[in-house]
Write a structure and sequence with these properties.
By secondary structure, the protein is α+β, with helices and mostly antiparallel strands. The chain has 3 helices and 5 strands, in the order ββββαβαα. It has one domain: Ribosomal protein S16 (S16 Ribosomal Protein, Chain: A), CATH 3.30.1320. A hairpin with a 2-residue loop joins strand 1 and strand 2.
Amino acid sequence: MIKLRLKRFGKKREASYRIVAMNSDARRDGRPLEELGFYNPRTDETRLEVPAIIRRLQQGAQPTKTVKHILEKANVFEQLKAQS
């Protein structure tokens, strides 16, 4: 199953995350199928590639809890419903 989840990068104690599409059984920092955005919890900065995220969701990808919350804040699910 394909999941939308966070991939950690950055220095110790200064973590940032990339939002990626990966197989659910792949390791956390493994090679992603596609990079879909960026999230920095220290500054609450997010950059999302919304068309690519919507395409992955339409293909059946499941977001993790944290990614789902980030997407809800960015109103991605409303855009998904509008396209359906």
